[in-house]
Write a structure and sequence with these properties.
This protein is α/β, with parallel strands linked by helices. It has helices at 3-36, 47-62, 74-83, 99-104, 156-168, 181-193, 208-212, 240-243, 245-253, 258-271, 274-283, 286-292; strands at residues 38-43, 66-71, 88-94, 109-126, 147-149, 175-177, 200-204, 214-216, 230-237. The chain contains 12 helices and 9 strands.
């Protein structure tokens, strides 16, 4: 065989090996890219968190991300963010409600943005009840069955009620009922439909204020909001901005006001389906979507 033929065969072999190596590298790169496109959002059963979590699931999937939603109590969500098994939690209340968790995991999580600035917590009653202040609640204890209907036991709202409101206002004879957000709302709906007295732990923004004509009991000692209005913040693991720089920019741009979050919650309630409600709301708010995803 002539020397030219040997060289030609050798060239083909080198070309083939190079192509194989290129394919392998390409596959590896594709796998890495696919990995960075997977995001887990943890959420608690608070209506504003359900709403914004499903909102961002829709927005991120539209951008090519694979999104998994995980519902849990607030303690395991913070733990998951700190460990990196949860990438985003969009409903961190600061500087009061979730301060204990933020202090505990301070060196393992990062704040990615603040999307709402006027959140607050309190003890709420239907407007037909003849009581104005938490100070008067001990005199109405028998009327409400000696109970304050609460939510998940690990919620910061429950801690504020248990550690601040109850001792500050001498409500030690009353029972703070540990349940869940859906159970509290069910008890509230049942009481309101019969115009019976009830006191619940609640927060704002929340659709229940309009739906059931509720109001906070006055809190002159600031037991439920010792630092004033709270901010709703987005947190992720310390390396989130490195792993997801594009998403980190979107989280920083994300802002909503009371009317916008209330309308989103209302669309979800009306649709009785989170994804459909989000879709309906987004169809009416294209300009907001464009602002967030610049």
């Amino acid at each position: 065989m002539k020397r030219g033929c040997y060289l030609f065969i050798l060239f083909l072999l080198i070309l083939n090996l190079t192509a194989c190596g290129s394919t392998s590298t390409s596959k590896s790169s594709d796998q890495e890219d696919k990995g960075t496109k997977e995001i887990t959002i943890g959420y608690i059963p608070w209506d504003e968190d359900v709403a914004v979590s499903y909102l961002w699931k829709s927005l991120l999937e539209e951008k090519g991300y694979k999104v998994k939603l995980v519902q849990a109590d607030v303690a395991p969500i913070f733990s998951g963010v700190a460990k990196g098994s949860i990438d985003l939690f969009l409903d961190t209340w600061m500087p009061t409600t979730h301060s204990a968790y933020m202090e505990k995991y301070n060196d393992k999580i990062s704040v990615l943005g603040t999307w709402y600035h006027e959140a607050d917590s309190g003890l709420a009653v239907p407007d037909y009840m003849d009581i104005q202040s938490i100070e008067d609640l001990k005199n109405k204890a028998e009327e409400v069955g000696g109970k304050i209907i609460g939510i998940e036991p690990g919620a910061g709202l429950m801690r504020l009620t248990r550690e601040n409101a109850i001792p500050d206002y001498g409500l030690n004879s009353m029972t703070l009922v540990e349940s869940s957000t859906p159970a509290m709302l069910a008890a509230l709906e049942k009481a309101v439909s019969s115009k019976k007295p009830i006191v619940v732990t609640l927060w704002r923004p929340h659709w229940a204020f309009e739906e059931y004509n509720l109001r906070y009991l006055e809190d002159p000692k600031n037991a439920m909001n010792p630092s004033g209005a709270e901010k709703l913040q987005i947190i992720g693991p310390k390396d989130f901005s490195t792993k997801f720089p594009e998403v980190a920019k979107w989280m920083e741009s994300f802002k909503m006001d009371l009317t916008q979050i209330a309308q989103l919650e209302a669309e979800i309630m009306k649709s009785k389906d989170e994804a459909k409600g989000v879709e309906n709301w987004l169809s009416k708010n294209e300009s907001l979507k464009e602002d967030w995803l610049k």
